[in-house]
Automatic annotation (TrEMBL):
It comes from Vulcanisaeta souniana JCM 11219. Residues 239-325 form the Beta-ketoacyl-[acyl-carrier-protein] synthase III C-terminal domain. This is 3-oxoacyl-[acyl-carrier-protein] synthase 3. SUPFAM superfamilies: Thiolase-like (SSF53901). InterPro entries: ACP_syn_III_C, ACP_syn_III_N, Thiolase-like.
């Protein structure tokens, strides 16, 4: 049986940003709340390229370095807010790259989609006898569908835009993919959604913003439930990979409010410098773990043999963590 690897990856980060001052004006919140509590100095937004445009351009940039390999599978694991509805991004990427005889699939689990995709693609790679390569792409423009006037949506004010493309292989790579842990709690499945399903269609409906329907249980208990599930999936993935939390060199975590990010690290018993807080990027949906990984590389936090945990959660609600190890 082979191993699964992350060979390489690329990011697309828009060059246009909005800062905490602009968000404060838009939302009506004090500037210090946006900057310090929500943890947003600024966040990138994209208004020219579509979700599939970003996915395709990032994939092309990555694959331009690996023109001699054959891609067996392309998986889109990004936002459901796509260019079109009832439509898949993976075939569009395949057509754009001119790939032949390639299996394409869209994987939807909101902001944890990229970790879910790694969890699903790993066994496919390790069980194949022949050399195999897969391309994972994620993209989001969900900053466009946040209702900034809705105080119930405050936890989504950090939504930003961008894309990632990740080349996977069972041959060799920069990071070896180890074990993962994913858990879903369906009690809050109808808290967040976009009202464009079949039961909401009528001639006068122009409602495209995300709806947030907090209930009493969500308001009272969700943060503690979320904390417990984050801690569970991180510890479980690390243990299954044969390590202890103290062995982990870096936690590549999605953006969340600053105090919660720090609380998770404290509960794990690790110092804050073993993660990078994405205060200048906001929450780029399923791109976040790879954005954080890239920042860690840029800041010399990762070396050969380093153990890294990619961590995310998505509305619905699902929490996920997967362990990778730098091998070269």
């Amino acid at each position: 049986m082979r191993n699964a690897y992350i060979v390489d990856y690329e990011l697309y980060i828009p060059s246009t940003y909005i800062d905490y001052r602009s968000l404060a004006l838009e939302t009506g919140l004090p500037e210090w709340v946006v900057r310090d509590k929500l943890g947003i100095n600024r966040k990138p937004i994209e208004r020219s390229l579509s979700v599939s445009d970003m996915a395709k351009l990032t994939a092309k940039k990555l694959m331009s370095k690996y023109s001699n390999i054959k891609i067996d599978l392309v998986a889109y694991a990004g936002s459901d807010f796509k260019d079109k509805y009832v439509w898949d991004v993976a075939p569009d990427v395949i057509g754009y790259l001119g790939l032949d005889s390639t299996y394409g699939v869209d994987i939807s689990m909101q902001c944890v989609s990229s970790i879910v995709a790694l969890d699903l693609l790993k066994p496919r790679l390790i069980l194949r006898d022949e050399d195999s390569y897969a391309l994972l792409v994620s993209a989001t423009k969900q900053s466009m569908i946040v209702n900034y006037k809705d105080k119930a949506s405050t936890f989504m004010y950090d939504f930003s835009d961008g894309a990632a493309a990740v080349l996977l292989s069972n041959v060799d790579g920069r990071y070896k993919i180890l074990e993962s842990s994913i858990i879903t709690n369906g009690r809050f499945s109808n808290i967040v959604y976009q009202r464009l399903g079949e039961r909401f269609i009528n001639d006068n409906n122009q409602d495209y913003l995300l709806q947030v329907n907090r209930n009493e249980e969500f308001n009272k208990s969700f943060e503690e439930i979320s904390l417990g599930n984050f801690l569970y999936v991180i510890r479980n993935a690390v243990e299954k990979s044969g390590f202890e939390i103290s062995d982990v060199d870096y936690f590549a975590m999605l953006h969340m409010k600053r105090s919660f990010h720090e609380r998770i690290l404290r509960e794990l018993g690790v110092s804050l410098d073993r993660s990078i807080y994405l205060e200048d990027y906001g929450h780029m949906q399923a791109v976040d773990p790879f954005l954080s990984l890239w920042l860690a590389e840029q800041n010399d936090k990762i070396r050969k043999d380093s153990i890294i945990v990619l961590v995310a959660a998505g509305t619905g609600w699902t929490w996920g963590a997967i362990v990778i190890q730098r091998v070269k």
